[in-house]
Design a protein that fits this description.
The complex is a heterodimer of chains A (325) and B (214). In chain A, 44% of the residues lie in helices and 19% in strands. Chain A is an alpha+beta fold. In chain B, the strands form two sheets. A six-stranded mixed beta sheet of chain B has the order 2-3-1-4-11-5, sandwiched between helices. Chain B has a five-stranded mixed beta sheet with strand order 8-7-9-6-10. Classes of the chains: A alpha+beta (325), B alpha/beta (214). Chain A binds chain B through residues 109, 112, 154, 156, 186-191, 214, 216-217, 257, 259, 275, 277-284, 324, and chain B through 1-3, 62-65, 81-83, 85-89, 187, 191-197, 199-200, 203.
Chain lengths: 325, 214
């Protein structure tokens, strides 16, 4: 007799569970050794609290409890930890470091093999200075990838504000700007170039913007980007260059790829953004970055940074890397 | 995925000829795929060509089973929930997605006026749904897999949404274009991870294709 479970959820049986347990233990060991104490928060929160991060992070799973309160299933751990810090550590001395292994919930499109319940492993660093925060988080991420046996994994490092500021500089506003950013987030370059032209910024500027999104690699891409000019580019490249220099000083820049085309679709990022890739897997393993604005929503003027890895994808990549031998 | 030669998903069917032509133009040896071999995979000295239905290209590229691919914009629009990077408009395979109905017949307008609802047969349910939503009309979509021109002739639906190249099939079935929805051409797409980890190879190929498609 088959008793179905909802699409996008799954059972884990002992063989897989043993491997996942090892992977989780390895990750938590790295996090704890770097001073990121593990926390747990409830899977359900008040919708009013979770929706402070607004926009696309808003969970699709909302429901009323027995007294009519609107509750929500968390879609990631960043917002719950922001809530936790603001509530329980407001009087404490920053920086605060926390790690987690937790389930998150997101809507799925049918028949695409997407998971509506998934496990994330990650860290949050709240209240360190902006540049140091990004650098430290990248270092921890590298150690976590090593602990998972993903020595070939690459971290993409970009700037979340670059295009918002660049478009502002070029005088592109409102719907046109949002539409351009949407094409950039999905990386539809054909539409991007057309929309830039339609925005009336001129052929030359449109080409420059499109070219910028294709710059990824080592330090040389920063020089190339600077050559393309503009105040927004100058600010982003200076900031990226500082982060990269510091990573290099600490011997942690080798697997970092500077990527000026990176734009994560979560609204709360500002400044440095990260994405994680492994050559054995066609899907992004996880991501993160800085999100200074989020803590303000919870009444604390603190800079923040973090990352989250999808545990199942890391596990799949482990398997693929092992197959490669 | 990032090991070995680049894997390119090649669309069989209407786009195949021009796809192989542009591959020739960028220096890929296409002798084998042009032959009468039944193979689906061809190892050329430059890259691995994986041939498949155009509508499968986004699936293979999304998962990284192919690093890059070529397929029609109609396919990408219909499967817009598959995150692949669209790098280049190759310009060939030009078709138009249209709303068509029986020639000289006002059934479409009448359905809109008297029933408030259009019945539309299509192989592109998502494109159709988005188009009618954007133009503020309610429709009942009837999804068919084969010759969609048949549907209005036998009363399955008031009109069709379909891809038209020359318009001859429409004409032969006494159908005419009522509205143009979007022009579709062949696009060069890449897997998200491959685009990052094989940046130099993919950029070089993109540039060559850009030159060749001018």
């Amino acid at each position: 007799m088959i008793h179905p479970i909802p699409p996008g959820t799954r059972d884990v049986l002992p063989d897989e569970m043993r491997e996942l347990r090892k992977l989780k233990a390895a990750l938590i060991e790295v996090f704890e050794a770097r001073g990121y104490g593990e926390v747990a928060t409830p899977a359900i929160e008040y919708d009013e609290v979770m929706s402070r991060a607004d926009g696309p992070t808003r969970s699709s799973y909302r429901f009323f409890d027995e007294s009519g309160e609107l509750l929500t299933l968390r879609s990631d751990m960043t917002v719950p930890i922001a809530r936790l810090v603001a509530t329980r550590f407001a009087a404490g001395e920053p920086p605060f470091r926390f790690s987690y292994l937790a389930n998150g919930y997101r809507p799925v499109r049918p028949q695409r093999g997407q998971m509506r319940e998934f496990v994330q492993a990650g860290v949050e660093l709240i209240g360190a200075s902006a540049e140091d925060g990004a650098v430290e988080v990248i270092e921890v991420l590298e150690e976590a990838l090593d602990a998972a046996g993903l020595g070939r994994a690459v971290i993409g490092l970009g700037d979340a504000d670059l295009y918002r500021q660049l478009l502002e500089e070029l005088g592109v506003e409102g719907e046109a700007r949002d539409s351009i950013l949407a094409s950039l987030a999905t990386h539809d370059l054909v539409a991007l170039e057309q929309k830039l032209l339609d925005a009336g910024i001129g052929d030359e500027q449109a080409k420059t913007c499109a070219r910028l999104t294709q710059l990824r690699g080592g330090r040389e891409v920063l020089d190339e980007a600077r050559g393309l000019g503009g105040a927004a580019v100058e600010r982003a490249t200076t900031s990226l260059s500082q982060t990269y220099d510091e990573l290099q000083r600490r011997g942690a820049a080798d697997r970092v790829q500077i990527d000026l085309g990176l734009l994560r679709d979560l609204d709360y990022y500002s400044g440095a953004i990260l994405e994680v890739y492994d050559p054995a897997l066609g899907y992004v393993l996880g991501g993160g970055g800085r999100y200074d604005g989020l803590m303000k929503q919870f009444g604390l003027d603190l800079s923040a940074a973090g990352f989250a890895l999808y545990l199942d994808r890391v596990h799949t990549a482990q398997l693929e890397e092992a197959r490669r031998g | 995925m990032a090991d070995g030669p680049l894997k390119l998903a090649v669309p069989r069917g209407a786009l195949l000829g021009e796809t192989l032509d542009i591959l020739d133009a960028v220096g890929v040896d296409t002798t084998e795929p042009r032959g009468d071999s039944r193979s689906l995979i061809f190892e050329t000295p430059q890259m691995t060509l994986v041939t498949m239905r155009p509508s499968d290209v986004p699936t293979y590229v999304e998962s990284g089973a192919a690093d890059v691919g070529i397929t029609g914009k109609d396919v990408l629009l219909e499967q817009s929930d598959r995150p692949v990077y669209e790098l280049l408009d190759l310009g060939f395979g030009r078709c138009t997605m249209v709303l068509a109905a029986r020639t000289g017949n006002d059934r479409l307008a009448e359905a809109q006026r008297r029933l408030g609802m259009l019945r539309i047969a299509t192989k592109y349910p998502r494109i159709a749904e988005r188009y009618f939503e954007q133009t503020g009309r309610q429709v009942e979509r009837v999804e068919v897999k084969g010759s969609v021109e048949l549907a209005p002739l036998v009363g399955l639906g008031d009109g069709i949404v379909d891809l038209v190249a020359t318009g001859r099939t429409l004409e032969e079935n006494e159908l005419e274009v009522r509205e143009e929805i979007v022009v579709c051409t062949a696009r060069f797409v890449a897997n998200r991870v491959a685009h990052k980890l094989r940046a130099a190879e993919i950029d070089e190929l993109t540039e060559k294709l850009r030159e060749a498609s001018r």
